[in-house]
Structure formats: structure tokens, C-alpha cells
Design goal:
The complex is a heterodimer of chains A (138) and B (168).
Chain A (H helix, E strand, L loop, with lengths): L1 H16 L7 H9 L4 H26 L2 E2 H24 L2 H44 L1
Chain B lengths: L1 H4 L3 E2 L7 H17 L3 H22 L6 H13 L12 H26 L4 H21 L6 H20 L1
Helix pairs in contact in B: 2-3, 2-5, 3-5
The chains are: A mainly alpha (138), B mainly alpha (168).
């Protein structure tokens, strides 16, 4: 089981590092394959994210522009929301939390797919227009 | 050296419309309730913000903002292409901002969770070291491969597991 855990960790890390997405993959693995309770899996996923994000951010702080004011506004309001959400997570029955999590996964999967298709189409269109322009210029 | 690290943190006056506050709260709420998924909310927040900023910038394109100069200056040093329109943050800038927003929120959520569950904190460390190794591999290969297929597979996997979570 340890080997499966390590392999899963490497895989999720890779997907997150490529910017494809990582949110919730560990929860999927822990609940569907390792049969953890929903809230336990969410707790482990959160902790995993905190450390992984801190590592990633230490690389990004050097290279990327971060609008600090904007981030603080989002953090302050986010903290309020997160306290409410975490409180609710322990009031709701676990079955409901799991179903909500499943709904979130479906929504995020659809969003990822549609954004991917759209950006691919935009890139293809740009390529087409560029080649069209070149042809006319020649 | 310390100065260098924070050189790219820009501070400027932001007007904060209500939807910005609300989307922060929504991201936090999802993150607290489900332990994940704040990124999905913030993707929309940041793309809406870049749209708004590019609209606003095209109106007063002649006026040079101090932030733009800052971006150019650092661009030479850190490899961000210089001359890039500042308001149109790159995908990677938005990614970095998403992480820096979700990190403190997740830390707080995590505390709440571990106080209320008997989940073993050590379990997250089992995944952490492999996760960091994977993250480095991912960051290394990210520009070398086409991600369209991978993203679609990822989307399919999340939809299928979401459905099985609902049905089970």
C-alpha cells in the first residue's frame, strides 16, 4: 500500500506541477481506493496542499508578479468563508459532504474540459489567421 | 537577497467591487467545506480581473503606470518577457496568485479539520515527499509536452470519480 501511496503522490505532484490540476485528486484516491472517511481524506488533502503550495510558492515568488493587495482582499474574505465552510463540513452528514464533493468534481471536470477545448480552438484559429496573413502577404 | 525575492510583489491601489469580496468568500467556503476546489472559483476571479484591467488599460493606454515600469525592470532580470502589457497577467502569474490566496485559507481549514477529525496528520507526509518530487518533474516537463490531451483525461477522470462519489 505504501508503494501505491508513493506512486499516487508522485502522480498528483506532477499534475499539479504542470498546472493541470491537483485539487481533490488526493481525496478521490483516499476515499475511492483507500476507503477513508470523507472528512479525514479532506483533512489530509488540505495538509498536503499547504506544504506542496508553500514549496511551489517559494519558487514562484521570485519569478512571478503577485498583486499583494488583491491577494490580501481575497484571503481576508476567504478566511471568513472557510471558517463557515469547515464548520458546515462537520455539521453535515458525511454522505452529503461526499455527494457535494462529487458534484464539485463534475463541475470542475466540465470547466477544465471546456476551457481546454476553447483555448485549443483559439490557438488553432490564431495559427490559421497567421498562416492566412502570410499567404496573402506573399 | 531577500529584497530580490519580494521584488515582484506589487502594491497598487485596487478598487474592490463587491463581487471580488464575494468570490473570495465563495472560494473560502468551498475550500472549507470540501477541502479542495477553491482554485476553480479563483480561475474565474482572475480571468474576470484581467479582462477588466485590459479594458481599463486600453482606455488610458498613454498613461504609464508605475507598476508597468516595475514589471519591465524585473522582466529583464527574471526572464519574464519585457514589454508585456502588465494588466494581462500571464497564466503563470495567475497561478502564483491563486496559490498565494489558497495557501493561508487552506492552512486555517486544515487546523479546523485536524481539530475535529481523528485523521492522522502523518498520512499527509507519506504523500508529501513523493508529491514534491512529482511536482519538480512536472515543472520540468511542463513546457516540453502538449497538455491538451492530459487536461482532457484529467477532466474525464474527475467527472467519472465525481459521479461514482455521488452514486455510491
Amino acid at each position: 500500500m505504501l508503494i501505491a501511496d508513493i506512486a499516487a503522490g508522485v502522480l498528483f505532484g506532477m499534475l499539479a506541477g504542470m498546472g493541470i490540476g491537483g485539487g481533490g485528486l488526493l481525496v478521490i484516491y483516499l476515499t475511492l481506493i483507500r476507503s477513508y472517511a470523507q472528512t479525514d481524506a479532506q483533512a489530509i488533502n488540505l495538509m498536503f496542499f499547504v506544504f506542496a503550495a508553500a514549496a511551489a510558492l517559494s519558487l514562484h515568488l521570485r519569478k512571478r508578479k503577485i498583486d499583494f493587495v488583491l491577494v490580501s482582499v481575497l484571503v481576508v474574505t476567504g478566511v471568513v468563508g472557510s471558517l463557515a465552510g469547515a464548520k458546515l463540513a462537520f455539521v453535515l452528514p458525511r454522505v452529503i459532504t461526499r455527494k457535494l464533493f462529487g458534484t464539485m468534481l463534475i463541475v470542475s471536470g466540465i470547466i477544465t474540459a471546456s476551457r481546454t477545448v476553447k483555448s485549443k480552438r483559439d490557438a488553432d484559429n490564431n495559427k490559421y489567421y497567421a498562416s492566412d496573413k502570410n499567404r496573402r502577404n506573399n | 537577497m531577500k529584497k530580490d525575492i519580494f521584488a515582484n510583489i506589487t502594491v497598487e491601489k485596487v478598487d474592490c467591487p463587491a463581487w471580488l469580496w464575494l468570490s473570495g468568500a465563495a472560494a473560502g467556503f468551498v475550500n472549507g467545506l470540501l477541502g479542495a476546489g477553491a482554485g476553480i472559483v479563483l480561475v474565474y476571479t482572475f480571468s474576470a480581473l484581467s479582462k477588466r484591467d485590459s479594458k481599463r488599460d486600453s482606455k488610458k493606454a498613454s498613461k504609464k503606470s508605475p507598476r508597468k515600469e516595475n514589471g519591465k525592470e524585473n522582466g529583464k532580470e527574471s526572464g519574464i518577457e519585457s514589454g508585456k502589457n502588465d494588466s494581462q497577467n500571464s497564466v503563470k502569474d495567475n497561478f502564483a496568485m491563486t496559490i498565494s490566496t489558497v495557501l493561508p485559507i487552506s492552512l486555517l481549514s486544515a487546523f479546523t479539520y485536524f481539530k475535529n477529525t481523528d485523521a492522522d496528520v502523518r498520512m499527509s507526509f507519506v504523500f508529501l515527499i513523493p508529491g514534491i518530487i512529482g511536482g519538480l518533474i512536472g515543472a520540468f516537463v511542463t513546457d516540453k509536452i502538449s497538455k491538451t490531451a492530459l487536461k482532457l483525461i484529467f477532466a474525464a477522470v474527475t467527472v467519472i470519480s465525481g459521479a461514482s462519489m455521488i452514486l455510491r
